[in-house]
Design goal:
Elements lengths: L6 H20 L2 H17 L7 H23 L17 H14 L3 H12 L4 H8 L3 H18 L14
Helix pairs in contact: 1-2, 1-3, 2-3, 5-7, 6-7
């Protein structure tokens, strides 16, 4: 019996969604690819023992990304995430909206951003989000409340309606 039986099927079924979640967590396509690859590498080494590989991979991705944010913050006192200035077509309102939303997400703390992604993009409950991030439900509520307030403050004309779950 193959130790990795079902892994390719798992990746084919979940890979695209994992990549989108990773992009929302990192804000960078290359970093997102690295995050997914790192999480899958950990999963494949435990593949036969995993009862719920999707949950395991997602949890690894969240924890890895929070660890990366913490490492980067320790390395740089003034670790401010800013998007580089780019030329944007005036006709492309959607692109502008996505860039503004990405900048607003980048302005959140790592844990606030993780809560927003888990709660509103992945449509997870507060209990599931708390388990995923390894914190209490109260912490998830507080982080979510503060994150939404900060998003509304950062970009008041964005009309933060996370229930629409537009892909960033």
């Amino acid at each position: 019996m193959d130790d990795f039986e079902g892994f390719a099927a798992f990746f084919a079924e979940h890979g695209e969604r994992l990549s989108r979640v990773a992009y929302l967590l990192t804000g960078d396509r290359h970093a997102a690819q690295d995050l997914v690859q790192s999480a899958l590498a950990k999963a494949v080494s435990r593949w036969r023992r995993l009862a719920n590989p999707d949950a395991y991979v997602r949890k690894v991705m969240y924890h890895e990304q929070v660890s990366r944010w913490r490492r980067r913050a320790r390395l740089s006192e003034d670790a401010v995430a800013e998007l580089p200035e780019r030329a944007v077509d005036d006709e492309s309102e959607r692109t502008v909206r996505r860039m503004v939303l990405a900048a607003a997400l980048a302005a959140l703390t790592p844990r606030q951003r993780a809560v927003v992604v888990a709660r509103y993009f992945e449509d997870r409950t507060e209990v599931e989000t708390a388990a995923l991030l390894g914190c209490s439900v109260g912490t998830v509520k507080t982080l979510g409340h503060r994150a939404l307030a900060r998003l509304r403050e950062t970009v008041p004309d964005l009309d933060v309606d996370l229930s629409r779950r537009e892909t960033v």
